[in-house]
Amino acid sequence: MRKKLAGLIIAMTAMAAMAACGNSGASQTGAPAAATATPEPVVQESAVETPVPETPAAVSGEIYLILPTETGLSAQEEAVIMGDAKKEGYQVTVKTSEGDTAKQTEAFDAAIAAKAAMIICDNVDNDATTASIQKAREAGIPTILMNRGIESQESAVSQILTDRKPCIARFAEIFADHMGKTGNYAIVHTSSNTDTAACVAAFAEAMKGVESMTAADQIDVDEYNIEAVKESIRQLLANKPEISALVCGNGVQARAASEVAEELEKEMAVFCLDGNDDAISTMILSGKIAAAIVKPSEDIARSAIRDAIAYLKNGATGTNANMYYVGAILTQKETILVVSPTPAEGQTGTPTPIPSATAAPDDSLTEIELDDSDTSGADTSEEDYSEPEVDENGREPGSFEVEIIDESFDEGGEGRPQ
C-alpha cells in the first residue's frame, strides 16, 4: 500500500478549557513531530489482583479460542493468536459463537470438557459470559476476554478491551460531513446494553453542536434478532419517511438497516457505533454502510495471547487485569486510529470495562500519512501530562487525539480487514 508522509498537526488545550468546551472543533498548529511506534493501550491500575483458579490448572496445552466468526476482523485475531501460540508449543482450537450467547456457552462447555489449558474469548454477552467464565474457573481453566468486557472484576484473569468512547466525537464529525450537515436521522440501539448506551449518549451529546441536523427519533430494538430489528426499522421509516440516516448500536442492527434500505429502495446512510460484527467490514468496503467504529483486532489479540502464555507459564499475566485499546473508525476510504492521552502519573482505581469509564479527548487532531518504510503509529507512552508545561507559544498541553489517515487502499492491505 502506498503511503506518504504528509505532516502533523498537533493541538493542545488546557484541561479546564476542554471541560468547558467539550464540543469545540477548533485546533491549533504546532511544530511537526516524527511518527513513532504503534500506540500503547491505555492502562489503568486495577485494585483487584489477577485471580488464581481455585483448583489446579488443567493439564493439556490446548488453548480454546472463541470468536464471533472466522472472517473479517476475527480472522485477524485468529491469525495472531494461532501464530504466537504455535511458537510457544500450544495448540489452539477455534470455536465460533456467531454472536449467539447459546453458541458461546456451548463453546465454553466444550473447552471445559476437553480440559483446556486456557480460554480466550471475544465476548458476546455480559451475563452469559460471566456465568461461563465462573464455570470454567471452577474447573481450573482461566479465561482471558477480548474486545468487550464484563462487570465482574474477579472472574477473568485478564480483560483486554475496546474503548469506543474516545472515537465518538470524531465519528460524529464523519457522520455530519457525510450527510452535508443537513437532514433528519434516527438512532437504533438496545438500551439494556450499557456499553452501547454509553456510546449512544456520547454521540447524541456530540451531535448537539450540529444544529442543522435533526435527531428525529431513537428506537430501542432487539440486540441480535435481525428480523425483529428489520421490522422495527420498517415501522420507523413508515412513520417518519423524512429520515435519511440511521446510526445503529451494533453490527446486526446496521446490517438490518442496510437491508431494509435496499428492500425499500430508499437512499439512506447507515452508520455503526460498534462494528464488532465481522460482516460490517465487507459491507463498508462495498458502500452499503458508511462507517463504523471497530476493534483494533491485531493489537488486542497480541496482548491476549501474550497474557495467556505468561499465565500458563508463571501462574500470572504480569500485567494489569484490565487494559483498554481505543477503537478505530473504518470508512470506505480510510482507517482512522484515535489514540487516547497517556494517563496522569499516579492515576489509580479499578476501571469498569465499559467505555463510559474512559474520558473522551477533545476535538483537536494530529494527522499523519506514513511512507512505505514506516508502518508505525504515534506513541504517547513516554509523555507525561500530569504536570502541565508551557511551550514557546504559551500553550499548556491537555488531552489530544492522533489520527492516522490512509487515503490509498488496496483490499487486504495493512490495517484493513481482509
If you had to describe this structure to a student in words, what would you say it looks like?
The protein is α/β, with parallel strands linked by helices. Among the domains are: 62-163 and 296-325, Rossmann fold; 165-273, Rossmann fold (3-Layer(aba) Sandwich). Helix content is 30%, strand content 18%. It has ten helices and 16 strands. It has a nine-stranded mixed beta sheet, with helices on both faces. Helix 3 (101-113) packs parallel to helix 4 (126-138). The protein is elongated. The two termini are 14 Å apart.
Give the key terms.
418 residues, 9-stranded mixed sheet, Rossmann fold, single chain, disordered C terminus, disordered N terminus, 7-stranded mixed sheet, alpha/beta
Quick structural gist:
The protein is α/β, with parallel strands linked by helices.
CATH architecture of the domain at 62-163 and 296-325: 3-Layer(aba) Sandwich
Q: Structural class, judged by helices and strands?
A: alpha/beta
At the first level of CATH, the class of the domain at 62-163 and 296-325 is: Alpha Beta
CATH level-four homologous superfamily name of the domain at 62-163 and 296-325: Response regulator
Beta strand count: 16
Describe how the helices and strands are arranged.
Layout: H1 15-20, E1 42-43, E2 62-67, H2 72-87, E3 91-96, H3 101-113, E4 118-122, H4 126-138, E5 143-147, E6 158-163, H5 168-178, E7 183-189, H6 194-207, E8 213-220, H7 226-239, E9 243-248, H8 251-263, E10 269-272, H9 279-285, E11 291-294, H10 297-314, E12 322-326, E13 328-331, E14 335-338, E15 367-368, E16 403-404
Parallel strand pairs: 2-3, 2-4, 4-5, 5-6, 6-12, 7-8, 7-9, 9-10, 10-11, 15-16
Antiparallel strand pairs: 1-12, 11-13, 13-14, 14-16
Helix pairs in contact: 2-10, 3-4, 5-6, 7-8
